[in-house]
Amino acid sequence: MYDLLFSPGRIGSLTIPNRIAMTAASASLSQPDGTMTEDMLAYYEARARGGVGLIITEMVCVDEARGVLFPRELNAAREENIPSFRRLADRVHPHGTKIFAQLFHPGANADPKLNPGDLISASPARGKKRGQARAATVEELEAIAEQFGQAARRVKESGFDGVEVHAGHHYFLHSFLSPVTNHREDQYGGRLENRTRILRQIVEAIRRTCGADFPLMFRVSLEEYIGKDGYHADTGIKICQMLEGWGVDAINVTASGTDSKLSQSVEPMYYPQGWRKHLAKAVKGTVSIPVLSVALIRDPAYAEKLLREGVLDFAGSVRAHLADPNWAAKARTGKEEDILPCISCMACFAKYEEAGHITCAVNPETGYEAQLPPLSQDGAGRLVVVLGSGPAGLEGAWVAARRGFRVVLFEKSRHLGGQLRLAMATPRKEKIGWLLDSLLRRCRRAGVDLRTGWAPTEEELRALAPYAILDATGGRPAVPASIQGVEESPLVCTPVEIITGQLDLREESIVVVGSGMTGLETAEILSDRARNNAVLVLEAAPRVAPGVYGSNRNGVTWILEGNNVVLLCNRTLTKVGRDRIWFTDSQTGEEYVYPCDRVVLALGTAPARPYGEGVLEALCPTVLRVGDAAQGGQIWDAVHAGYRAARSL
How confident is the model at residue 259 (pLDDT cuts 50, 70, 90)? Predict the structure, then answer.
């Protein structure tokens, strides 16, 4: 069915069994010294077992004095780490998968707390970890090129099949390529030939240490997307042509980086599949070596299409394989409908601090492969009742059914999906529908009895005599009683009424209180120019969308700015009247009055608890509350809670 996708491909002297590549993303599963843990080995082996042709590891440190980005980062700067890397190669190779190490230097973006030496960049710069970097000296650059060469030798000696050098995303090597960050006047600045000098030195160093036949790939941001001062695809193409001329075996085409507000390197949900395929196609049309690109590929049919159109030679993705490590195997066996879909929600990165490593919103097992035993089959037909069909309820239902429980799910509305349906109705969130479709398909195949339009009474639940109840009844919009007049004012409404279209507000002055994603998306709907509303957003915190991942926030705020939405931070709503509101500046204590036609409270959710307190516990000895029924959260929180609850039964 996917003849090209599952045909062998070559990078240099290496034959790769298919055209599917798992690209690099920092998993942070290693030991503090950069060696392998069983968590790391199991994480990569799961993707190899799942059929990917090529794995490119997360970033691998080559300079531990000033080149460390994360606390638990793979480290090829030490001779004693060679046996550890060999363990990973030995776990991947039996499955037929090839593996490259991504050699990397963060430059100004290194974490100053993790690096004993000065941070360095092409020119003085401040990094995303708030470190201040100075310009690297010529002697340091020559040493760094040699460090790349020695790191490549170490991973080659460990049995790896090749290396990828990361020269994109505004890290150290990219800082030389970009005229925005390279202001040097020596042999490493000015003309493109000089700005690429460090790349050529690294190629030469790797060839000296590893030989001409060791596969070498470079990852290049073809287009910076940072405005007129950055370089564009014409320059990016020329860089790729130069790399080919120096003997590089393949190009991994990416875009943008840490300095780009809209995050074109790791795209959030609002980007369509394949939006930047033109960049890969441009490189493939101007070089003769293989081209790999991520191109936001989510389904195998689209990957096959890009291969047939000559856009690329290898279909790369990391998040698709985080969501489903068996992505390739399911595609090969015609079970693509069973693929757990990546919805580009960014939780894999947004939840790093909370989880301590890579995770996935749609697959709660990602990052925990070594810790989770096989799902026990001990349900023995005992009845589990699930109340509610949001992401927590559906995940809990299908996992419990897989364990052999008899599962009956009740949904009070006529449509399954709960909060997922509400989220799908906000702008550019269609991909959430992929998750809903997948969860429903899994539930039906697992034999879950799905009953819609039915909120069972206490008597009905008692008659069922369930072994356990998963309370996934969700939440309701929070209406804080501390805000004077909020319950009496005719001005007050909730995001639900706006998103579902119950209220079609036009030509009004509207205040949205709360700048989480729900508040911002509600403001976007209201500020559509066809509605002719004036929209003001109030946020009590010092910054917009506190706790929201940057690229998700930025994707909405740039639209709000264009729609003339006013965003005020450090503002706390204190009173709502019949035609105006009062709020205070938390920094100065000064109070303001603002006349308006409508107030939308986007202040999160509170558990709905439709059965009241203690009622379900009186009916069943095991009641597990999941999702918003326990505490307001995001898709990641709900899915993980449903999964954990079903495993704990």
Answer: low
